[in-house]
């Protein structure tokens, strides 16, 4: 029996995958070599690209564009799964979670409001250009295109989300070109 209390998702995945077959000592050598090939940790090109970008931005949750979705990898996937209430699973060598591309900024706002720095890693070449180019079968180039924190995320949508936590007063100053006898300031509550 495997005790899962207090384990993170990645620790649990390692325990489950590493724990199977430990009791069978009568495996043939071909089965053993096949098992070793499957468990050998060789990163996919996308995982290698993620590791290179993550090395530059260690304290940032990275959303990586993969077609029509954004994926989180490793510890970032576990955090995103917990905070966004989305599914997280193991894929090749990392835990992964994904969100649809059209909902990116909804989820970015949610993560930023929880206090995380969120980086958006986009594909810097299009599939049409890639199909015509010489590197048709190579990996899309990706780079960090946006970094969001509580102080840098602005716009109408974020203010609607932050209303849940507190309702700040919005001041509307009135400026007149001619001298007026009365100066007015309005407080607008939305």
UniProtKB/TrEMBL annotation:
Q: Where is the composition biased (Polar residues)?
A: 23-36
Q: Which GO terms describe its molecular function?
A: ATP binding; ATP-dependent DNA damage sensor activity; mismatched DNA binding
Q: Where is the DNA mismatch repair protein MutS-like N-terminal domain?
A: 44-154
InterPro entries associated with the record: DNA_mismatch_repair_MutS-lik_N (IPR007695), DNA_mismatch_repair_MutS_N (IPR016151), MutS (IPR045076)
Cellular component terms, GO, for this chain's entry? Answer: nucleus
Give the GO biological process terms. Answer: mismatch repair; mitotic recombination; somatic recombination of immunoglobulin gene segments
Query: Which keywords does the record carry?
Result: ATP-binding, DNA damage, DNA repair, DNA-binding, Nucleotide-binding
Span list, region Disordered: 16-38
Among PANTHER family, the record links this protein to: DNA MISMATCH REPAIR PROTEIN MSH3 (PTHR11361:SF122), DNA MISMATCH REPAIR PROTEIN MUTS FAMILY MEMBER (PTHR11361)
Q: Which family does it belong to?
A: Belongs to the DNA mismatch repair MutS family. MSH3 subfamily.
Q: What is this protein called?
A: DNA mismatch repair protein MSH3
């Amino acid at each position: 029996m495997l005790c899962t209390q207090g384990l993170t998702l990645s620790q649990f995945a390692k325990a489950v995958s590493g724990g199977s077959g430990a009791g069978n000592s009568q495996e043939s050598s071909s089965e053993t070599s096949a098992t070793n090939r499957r468990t050998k940790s060789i990163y996919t090109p996308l995982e290698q690209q993620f590791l290179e970008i993550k090395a530059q931005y260690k304290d940032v949750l990275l959303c990586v564009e993969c077609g029509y979705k954004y994926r989180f990898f490793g510890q970032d996937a576990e955090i995103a799964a917990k905070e966004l209430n989305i599914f997280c699973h193991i894929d090749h060598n990392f835990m992964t979670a994904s969100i649809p591309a059209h909902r990116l900024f909804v989820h970015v706002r949610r993560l930023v409001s929880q206090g995380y720095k969120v980086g958006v890693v986009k594909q810097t070449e299009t599939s049409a250009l890639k199909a015509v180019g010489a590197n048709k079968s190579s990996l899309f180039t990706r780079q960090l295109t946006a970094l969001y924190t509580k102080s840098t995320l602005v716009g109408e949508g974020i203010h609607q989300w932050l209303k849940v936590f507190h309702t700040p007063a919005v001041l509307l100053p009135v400026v007149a070109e001619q001298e007026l006898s009365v100066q007015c300031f309005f407080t607008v509550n939305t």
